[in-house]
Amino acid sequence: MSSRLKNITGTFDILPAGASREGVHAQGAAEWRYIEHRIRSIFERFQFEEIRTPILEPTELIARGIGQLTDIVSKEMFAFEREDTQYVLRPELTAPVMRAYLQHRMDQLGGAQKLFYIGPCFRAERPQKGRYRQFHQFGAEVIGVEAPMADAETIAVMMAIYHDFGVTNQRLRINSLGDAASRPRYRDALRAYFEPFKADLTETSLARLDKNPMRILDTKNEKERRLLDGAPRLVDFIDSESQEHYEAVKAYLADAGVAYIEDPFLVRGLDYYTRTAFELESDELGAQSALAGGGRYDLLAREIGEEVGVPAVGFAAGIERLFLAIEALGHAFPERSHPDVALVALGEAAGRWAFIQALALRASGLAVSVDLQGRSMKAQMRDANRSGARYVVIVGDTELAQRAAPVKHMATGNQESVAIDALAPYLTSHAPQGA
Ligand code: HAM
User: Fold this and answer.
1) What topology does CATH give the domain 341-430?
2) Which of 98, 255, 267, 283 is most buried by a 10 A CB count?
3) Structural domain boundaries of the chain?
4) Which of 92, 123, 280, 288 for a ligand 1 pocket mutation test, highest count of atoms within 8 Å of Cβ?
5) Which ligand 1 atom minimizes the distance to the CA of 132?
6) CATH number of the domain at 19-179+238-328, please?
7) Rounded to two decimals, what is the model's pTM?
8) Does residue 124 sit in helix, strand or coil?
C-alpha cells in the first residue's frame, strides 16, 4: 500500500489549472478568482461591504445560534477542545457575523449594516456530489432593519448574482415562519396531525415527531410527502404582523420582477429563522438541489446573549454548487491569463542575463516567464508556446555580444530585432500588462 498522504475526503485542493477526478468537482484557482471577483462586484453594486470573520469560533456561539436540535449542531460540527476552550470550525457565517456585529457595536454606526462574505465552511456530512466537508459560501446579511424591503433586497442581490452568471433556470421558494410564538403553536398542531399516522412514518420522522416535528416537513419520502397534503400549514398559525410583513415582502418581489413559489412547508434546517424563509433550488444539481437559502432571524442576537433583539435578514450560497449549475448550463469560463513575455535563453551567460532581465521587466509591470534550469531551446520554446505568451525573446551568446535580440510576436509570427538594453520600453509599449 502506498504511504502517500492524501487530502481528507469531502475536501479538495484548488489547483492552478483545476482537476477533475472521479466526478469530484475541482475547478482551477483562476475560475475561483473569476467567480469571487464577479460575486464581489455585484455585492458592491448593491452597496454591501465585506466582512471577514475567523474560521474558528467558540462552539457555544454555533450551538446556541443555530440550535442544539439541528443536524448541523447535533451531528455535523467539527468541534474540539483545547485548554478548556471549545472550538468549532464554522459551519456557516450568520451566527459569526452577528457575533461580530454585536461585539464591535456596529449598531452604533447608524442605519442598516449591509455585509457580505465569501469563505470556507465545514460540516461533517456524508460527502457526495454538491455536498462536501469543506465547502465555500458567499452570502450577505442585512442587520438592523425590520422592514420587509430588506428581505426583498437580500433576495434581489442573491438573484442578481445568479443572473450575472447566466443561471436563470432556478426556483425560488418562500414561506413565513412567523414570530417566536407561532412555531410552538404550529409544532403542537403538527404533532397532533401526525399522531394517528405514526405507523406510516419513517424512523427518522418518528424521532423528529417529539422534539422537532417541523423537520418532518423536509421529508423526501413519497409516502410521507403524500401525508403532508393534509397537514396543517404554518401560514395559518402565524401572527398578523408576520402575515403583513410576508405580504409586503412578496409585493416587493413582484415589483422587482422576481418570480417565486410559495411553499407552506419550507422550514429550513437552522433554528434561528423567524418570518421570511427562502430557498433557491435548481434541477441541474441532482439530489443536492439547494443553490442557496436564507431568511430573517430577528431572535438570533438574543439567542447568543444580547438583551435586545436585533432584526436581521440574509442568505448564503454554496460556491461549489454555483460552479455545478454554471457547468451544467455549458457556460464557459474566461481563458486563463497568459504571460506577456517568455524569455528563452541559450547558454549560461544568457541564462543569467534572462534571470536579471525578467526581474527588470516584471518591475515595469509585465508578466514574464523564464527558464530556471538551463533547458534546451526546444523545451523552452514548447513551454513558451503552451503558456500563450504574447512575445518571445530569444537570447544566446551572439545576441548578448551584439546587444540585440529577436522579439517574436506570437499572434502574427512577426519578428523584430530589438536592442536588449531597450527591451523594457519596447515590450511595455507593445504589451502593456492587462491589455
Ligand atoms: P444553509 O442552507 O445551511 O444556510 O447553507 C446555504 C448554502 O450553502 C446551501 O444552499 C448550499 O448551497 C451550501 N451548502 C451547505 N452545506 C453544504 C455542503 N456540505 N457542501 C456544499 N455546499 C453546502 C446557511 O448556512 C445560512 N447561514 C444562510 C443564511 C444567511 N441565513 C441567513 N443568512
Assistant:
1) Rossmann fold (3.40.50)
2) 98
3) 19-179+238-328, 341-430
4) 92
5) 20
6) 3.30.930.10
7) 0.92
8) coil
In angstroms, the Cα distances linking 23 to 5, 6, 128, 251, 332 are 21, 17, 10, 42, 18
Residues 35-72 pLDDT 10s: 999 999 999 999 999 999 999 999 999 999 999 988 99
Residue from 137, 154, 172 whose mutation best tests the ligand 1 pocket (most atoms within 8 A of CB): 137
C-beta of residue 323 within 8 angstroms of C-beta of residue 166: no
Question: Ligand 1 mean position to 353 CA, how many Å?
Answer: 53
State pLDDT tens for residues 315-371.
999 999 999 999 888 888 887 789 999 999 999 999 999 999 999 999 999 999 999
Ligand 1 site residues (CB inside 6 A) read: 92, 94, 123, 125, 131-132, 135, 137, 139, 141, 269-270, 290-295, 297, 314-318, 320-321
Contacts of 404 (CB under 8 A, 6+ apart): 417, 418, 419, 420
Instruction: Taking each helix axis as running N to C, give the angle between helix 94-103 and helix 59-66, from 0 to 180 degrees, rounded to the nearest 10.
Output: 110
CA of 76 to the centre of ligand 1 (A): 13
